[in-house]
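Q: Can someone sanity-check these two? First one:
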Amino acid sequence: MIRRAGPGREAAARAPRGEGDPAYWNLGIAATVQRDWATARDAWVGFGIRLPDGEGGITGRFGHACVRLDTGGEREVVWVERLCPTRGRVVNVPVTGGRRYGEVVVHDGAPNGERIVDGTTFPVFDELLLLQESELPTLEVTVAAGERADLEALVGLFTEHGYGVEPASSLRMLCACCSEGTHEQQRSVEAGAQRLALAAPPEEARRLLERRAAEAAIGRSWSGLEPVG
């Protein structure tokens, strides 16, 4: 049963359980925003969603999706790893609005657009609020990669250490109207000199860049490592 009063409690109390009634979904979002995890868990189960066992915040595997961040009127669609039906951890490096890799956002339940990658369709949700900030700063650096595989290896190295990297060649900017449609998307990297957005402590970023430059031909060249914002 629902253990705490909150927005939508009365509506959910009158709704049938396990049948996808939106009253439970609305309550789940409201309880998540309040970090009332007991009520949130009960609401998602009432909606008909199976959750991982446990108490407190939900950390499950709900797949990947996209979220349209909105900070001070700047909008950017980013990829998230869904932790629960309404929370996602940002898994690429945002480049607008001072947002950060690794932050946790609460998103709406109704998709507002789609992204298609390798034939798989992913929903795009609108952000409701930033729930948990990330401590990883955003940096920029210029890297000269002789081969595409060299840059892919650099991306993999940062990922292995829990950090983010976003090559400029993988970005595609869309206007706000177009962003809400359905779009084919490829996350690819290209050879040559280009700017990278990094999410890592500066000293760690420098160490990994130097390590990769010593291991393989990324042109043995990187420069201009600096914070963003």
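And here is the second, same format, sequence then tokens:
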Amino acid sequence: MDRHLIVVSDVIEPEVEHVLSAGLSAFNDQMTGINDRQSLAVTVRDPDTRQVLGGITGRTSLGLLFLDLFYLPESLRGSGLGSRLLKAYEDEGRRRGCRSAVLYTLSFQAPQFYEKHGWQRFGEVPCDPPGTSRVFMSKAL
């Protein structure tokens, strides 16, 4: 008889994150013989206070650059700063040996911005509110 307890939660405890990440990383290392996972952040900061105003976070692994979060406050949008951040992020991915990049965005967020920078859609999944979707994109680096 299986006595394992299955727990559903809306909180990801640090222990849970650690066990899952370490286990999956060990499996991937065993299968590929490569351990090159590395976080990546490109930020823009206030020149006086050094406070983070926006930026990009993600990671690199197995030749792939993942873009997880990209945010700029409205006051900084349209200035070319977003393009500079994205270029710096992609350049660092290339420096780390990545050949491709992947992200997803929402249809009302920035798919056109990414397309302007050479990213291509490879899938869309409908989500809420009705009429919107998650847009999956990639780019050869």
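A (reply): Looked at the second one. The chain has a mean pLDDT of 96. Strands lie at 38-45, 52-61, 64-71, 100-106, 120-127, 132-140.
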